[in-house]
Design goal:
Chain A: This is Interleukin-7. The structure holds two protein chains of two kinds. Chain A is mainly α. Chain A has six helices and no strands. In chain B, β13 (about 125-135) and β14 form a beta hairpin. The longest helix of chain B has about 40 residues, at about 190-225. Classes of the chains: A mainly alpha, B alpha+beta.
Chain lengths: ~180, ~325
């Protein structure tokens, strides 16, 4: 009897365990825990903010006439939610990484955007849910793009460029909000 | 087009014109995209009965949310709608000017300037300092953090400092500097007084003494010039007047040029149209021994011109010509 009871006990646990996994919150934070606001602030002010400024300046150099008055379907990633700035930044940075392979966008621009995304994730100590996006960061951090021949001509305006540009603008605003509200 | 500014994050104004340029009735509607419903401005700013802007208090302002306004301009039956681009209000903040500017003497001729800002979030500000001494003509500008140091100062000069602030790139993206602060000066009392006296001294020299001296000098030069005829003649030479040479012509001879010029009478007459000249025959007297028998043959008086009288008649160009004088 005790043997049967033990088996039943363990079987029930094994049934529950998958249920527990299923019921666990889908959007659990994949960021490091702990209050690291001082370190985040230092890295943002001293390093990341300059890369973001450069990326925003690069955005202004490209033709964007086709970007006016266009609404994007995937608009949820563009919000920097109140009290959820870190999660919003993580979401925006991970979303930006998908532009890294878009051939229609200028390579310099894509590379810089990926650098900023990976920098954001690194400063916040967050990871993306899809691990292949992290591979992009390994590539960006180790590979020296300067050795490659940079593009001579700038690409035509296209919707992917517009989406990336808006994503960059939202990321910058979300960092501004983080600095302004979190750091007192 | 509208211009919205958040003043020190306490209130915001969106202005669309001035009394001089506006003639229609204006109304403003605003909303935050994907967040709030459209609302009308609750507090219009007016100038002589015309709405020129809208005032938003702190509770109506939400940063980090795309903000849009729609301005309705109606004139008679026509209405014009002007929709703004989405605005990020954190990029439109204009902080208040810094206050409590304080100068401290540090060691080795160094000055340190500090200030405080009415803007609540000090980590979001960058500052600019401008200063000059009483001997400089231009301002020196520097963008600084929270403290400004002037490494070496001259104790015989006095310095004036101004500070202003702006939201830095960590917290926003703006070009809106605050107004310059109330200035602070540094320098010993005596030098500043001395400078004031010196300035008054220079003022009297420039505005009174120099003009009077210049006028006197000018007067002396003019008097000398008039008195010294040699100089006067060189500067103001006599203009020659040839009319006196012609007094005789016009007065004595009554405009008769030929008379005045002394042209001989017969030359004058020869130019007359009905002039007829007497032909004067000239012949050579023959020698005595060869021409005697001719005279004895007839009662012809010995003529001075015993040549062929018929010939002149034939060849005379004049019909009424006659032989003889």
């Amino acid at each position: 009897l005790s043997h049967v009871m033990a088996t039943t006990f363990f079987r029930s646990i094994f049934r529950v365990l998958p249920l527990l996994l299923l019921l666990s919150p889908v959007n659990s934070s994949s960021c490091a825990m702990g209050n690291r606001t001082t370190q985040i602030r230092e890295k943002y002010e001293n390093i990341l903010s300059h890369d973001i400024d450069e990326l925003v300046n690069m955005s202004a150099e490209y033709r964007d006439r086709c970007c006016k008055n266009k609404k994007h379907e995937n608009s949820k990633v563009f919000f920097c939610n109140d009290t959820q700035e870190i999660e919003s930044l993580q979401s925006m940075a991970c979303n930006m990484l998908r532009f890294f392979h878009k051939q229609k966008i200028s390579k310099d621009y894509r590379w810089k955007a990926a650098l900023v995304s990976c920098g954001t994730l690194q400063v916040l100590q967050c990871k993306c849910e899809r691990h292949k996006k992290d591979k992009v960061c390994m590539q960006v951090n180790t590979h020296n793009k300067d050795t490659e021949k940079s593009e001579q001509s700038k690409k035509k305006c296209n919707q992917e460029f517009c989406e990336l540009k808006e994503n960059i603008s939202s990321l910058r605003s979300c960092w501004n909000k983080f600095e302004k509200i979190i750091f007192r | 087009s509208e211009e919205c500014v958040l003043f020190n994050e306490e209130y915001m104004t969106c202005m669309w014109g001035s009394r001089e340029t506006l003639t229609a009735n204006y109304s403003l509607y605003y909303w935050y995209e994907n967040r709030s419903p459209v609302e009308e401005c609750k507090h219009y700013l007016q100038d002589q009965g015309v709405s020129i802007g809208c005032y938003f208090n702190r509770s109506e302002i939400i940063q980090f949310q795309p903000f849009r306004v729609l301005i309705n301009a109606s004139l008679g039956s026509r209405t014009l709608k002007i929709l703004s681009k989405p605005m990020e209000l954190q990029d439109l903040v204009k902080p208040e000017a810094p206050v409590n500017l304080t100068i401290r003497n540090m060691s080795s001729n160094q000055l340190q300037l500090t200030w405080t800002s009415p803007y609540p979030k000090a980590q979001c500000l960058e500052h600019a300092v401008k200063y000059k001494s009483n001997k400089d003509t231009n301002w020196t500008h520097q963008v600084k953090g929270d403290i400004f140091s002037l490494p070496s100062v001259d104790y015989e000069k006095y310095y004036t400092f101004y500070v202003r602030s702006k939201i830095n790139s960590y917290c926003g993206s703006t070009q809106l500097w605050s107004e310059w602060s109330v200035p602070v000066v540094w320098g010993s009392n005596s030098t500043s007084k001395g400078t004031a006296e010196e300035q008054l001294h220079w003022f009297w020299i420039h505005t009174v003494l120099i003009p009077i001296a210049s006028c006197l000098l000018l007067l002396v030069l003019v008097v000398l010039l008039v008195r010294m005829e040699r100089v006067w003649v060189i500067l103001m030479p006599r203009i020659p007047n040839p009319s006196k040479n012609f007094d005789e012509l016009f007065i004595t001879h009554n405009g008769n040029f030929q008379e005045w010029a002394g042209v001989p009478k017969d030359v004058v007459e020869s130019f007359r149209p009905n002039y007829s000249e007497n032909i004067c025959y000239v012949s050579e007297l023959p020698p005595k021994d060869s021409c005697e028998p001719l005279w004895e043959s007839g009662n012809h008086p010995p003529s001075v011109m015993p040549g062929a009288p018929a010939a002149p008649r034939e060849h005379s160009p004049y019909k009424n010509s006659y032989v003889g004088v």
